[in-house]
Prior knowledge:
With 257 residues, chain A is mainly alpha-helical. Chain A has helices at 2-30, 37-76, 83-121, 124-130, 135-173, 178-188, 191-219, 224-254.
Amino acid sequence: MLASLGARLLSFLHRMGCAFVFFLNSLRALLSVFGHFSLLIKQLYAVGVLTLLIILVSGLFVGMVLGFQGYNTLVDFGAESSLGLMVALSLTRELGPVLAALLFAGRAGSALTAEIGLMKATEQLAAMEMMAVDPFEQVIAPRLLAGIIAMPLLAALFTVMGVYGGYLVGVLQLGVDSGVFLSSMQHGVDFYDDIVTGVIKSGVFGVTITWIAVYEGYDAVPTSEGVAKATTRTVVSASLAILGLDYLLTAMMFGGA
Amino acid sequence: MGNRAVEIVVGLFVATGLAALVVLAFRVGNLGSQSDGPNYTVIAYFDNIGGLTVKAPVTLAGVRIGRVTNIDIDKENYRARVELSIQKRIDNLPIDSSAAILTSGLLGAKYVGLEPGAEDSNLKQGSEITLTQSAIVLENLIGQFLYNQADGKKK
């Protein structure tokens, strides 16, 4: 039993090391993306535009639910005038970056893993290497960069939709004054403390998710079963990484003050 | 979908994403209203600031005209030294204006309220507000109330 425990730890460390070397390799290839810009555009379409719908719809509904729940809690204290502030703060600081990242991992991360895994299974990656085409430059780097660019934009859109959803429910349905809603929001949300930290968070999540996704695809056992397993692993470990990192980032950004 | 269409859609996506960031910064956040333009700093000493924080608003007749920029302790006379940054266009505050630490609402945030005085000369960069009223600390208030009660019973 001890031996199996040791073996598991060693294989875990081995995988982490491989993932890190893989990350360094893709960083090295990152500059070359600007050479073939069309690859980046294509990947931005795949990970960004195709994820847009689920992000916008979820954002709207999350904001509307926040509006309802926040109103019901705040009205007991006669503080429903702070509804805008509550909705905006929870979205910019936490829910926007985290929920958008979880959706992104499920929608775009799994697709990335499956695509690259299938490329490996059908030996496209090996063929590229045979033709002296670096798969890092052609396949990995554009996807990584697209994920890093798309994630903060998607999180921002999620947050804006959420605030709009909260506004719809709070102002149009529950009768909070629209001026009060907006001014409490603008008064309480700080650009550097709340919005910039949210954007930094979503940037970190973007790097993490796409890194995990492309690595799992690249590392997948080249069978249909292996690709399926890798896809599952991507979603599971990316989600765990998002939530763990979110705690760390929050503790770093807000813990001191 | 053709190459051109993909490019257009991606461009649109990036543009709306950036627009969302701008909306966040200016409509949801306070980037638009943060700068008050040129301002000058006056200093006020309080016995007790009771929860006043840096960035708290400074108001005149209830209208925000500046912010608290620095809070420090004055070692010499054990009082709190509060720097108030006031918009330059409000340049006609008499030198004997008074400052009070007030609370917005029952349990709301603390802010500094200015009350104009009657002197001819005006506050300018670096001048000191001498008439100040400290924050009301609830514990002191309750203590005083209990003390008075006990006093009343004795008589």
